[in-house]
Inverse folding.
């Protein structure tokens, strides 16, 4: 416990971001004096480009509002994440964004924050608390759109590999789509199921995917509904020389993912995603609305978009900036907005 509290103290990155950026003359209290407002981001997952982009969005929207931001990173230690929520409470923050985590470890910690009078939102973790809005990418729809593309590309009869770690809210929601699609398409056979969140996530899943493909060489489709999972499957597929016979479908996207999807002969055929930076911005905006006494709604959803390998190649998209230029919804989402709320510069 002492170790965890020491890590919480040393892992809290205090960032005073643009205290003069918010429009103080129009913002409601307490955001009319944003330099006196502190919010915390308490993270469970941070490995990978998605989470770096999400953090960037949190930082930029916090800077636009002019509030102070503290970042706590538990690095997939569930008990430490709960301790970090308590640390944020002890520091007297005004609001908390909980980013991923396990329901059983975060439920009581989130309630302690609410009991302390702190406003809380949760991104991709179900804390089972009606006072805490859920920020989502519509994870069910992410999974459903990816699987519809898999069937469009490969027909409704194939041996499939599947990457899944239960207990993580976004993966559980995507799993619902997987089970529904299998039930509606009896020709789809789940031949192998793998999945781990051990660091490094991509390499750990590559090891499992390699073993699964060696044991089940007839697998022609892999549903890997998280981009680090998809990277792992691609590593294994490339190493085994199976890329021309494999199609990978995923969720989430980053500049690094775009490069991997566009490699000659890449098996990574499609992903469904929102811009993680935009989701980070929406998370902070929803919290800001609560601080101002407004209601962002119980569920704050950022709609996802299907992105195919062929689209990336046809449009010569090289990075997230190119993708945003071709898909305007990747640069901004009209979600959790208010007339008084300043937005990050574009």
């Amino acid at each position: 416990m002492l170790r965890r509290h020491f890590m919480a103290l040393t892992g809290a990155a205090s960032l005073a971001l643009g205290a003069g950026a918010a429009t103080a003359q129009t913002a409601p209290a307490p955001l009319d004096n944003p330099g006196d407002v502190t919010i915390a981001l308490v993270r469970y997952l941070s490995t990978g480009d998605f989470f770096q982009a999400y953090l960037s969005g949190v930082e930029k929207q916090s800077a636009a509002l002019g509030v102070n931001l503290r970042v706590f990173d538990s690095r997939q230690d569930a008990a430490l994440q709960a301790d970090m929520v308590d640390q944020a409470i002890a520091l007297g923050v005004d609001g908390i964004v909980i980013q991923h985590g396990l329901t059983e470890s975060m439920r009581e910690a989130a309630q302690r924050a609410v009991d302390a009078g702190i406003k809380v939102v949760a991104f991709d973790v179900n804390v089972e608390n009606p006072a805490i809005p859920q920020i989502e990418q519509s994870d069910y729809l992410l999974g459903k759109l990816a699987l519809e593309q898999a069937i469009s590309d490969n027909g409704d009869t194939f041996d499939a590999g599947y990457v899944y770690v239960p207990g993580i809210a976004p993966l559980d929601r995507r799993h619902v789509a997987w089970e529904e699609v299998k039930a509606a398409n009896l020709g789809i056979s789940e031949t192998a199921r793998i999945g781990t969140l051990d660091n490094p996530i991509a390499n750990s899943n590559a090891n499992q995917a390699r073993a699964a493909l060696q044991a089940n060489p007839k697998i022609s489709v892999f549903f890997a509904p998280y981009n680090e999972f998809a990277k792992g499957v691609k590593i294994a597929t490339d190493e085994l020389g199976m890329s021309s016979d494999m199609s990978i479908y995923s969720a989430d996207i980053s500049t690094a993912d775009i490069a991997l999807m566009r490699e000659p002969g890449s098996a990574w055929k499609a992903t469904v995603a929102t811009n993680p930076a935009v989701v980070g911005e929406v998370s902070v905006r929803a919290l800001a609305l609560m601080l101002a006494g407004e209601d962002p709604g119980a569920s704050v959803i950022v709609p996802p978009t299907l992105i195919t390998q062929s689209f990336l190649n046809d449009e010569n998209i090289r990075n997230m900036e190119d993708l945003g230029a071709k898909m305007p919804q990747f640069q901004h989402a009209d979600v959790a907005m208010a007339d008084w709320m300043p937005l990050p510069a574009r």
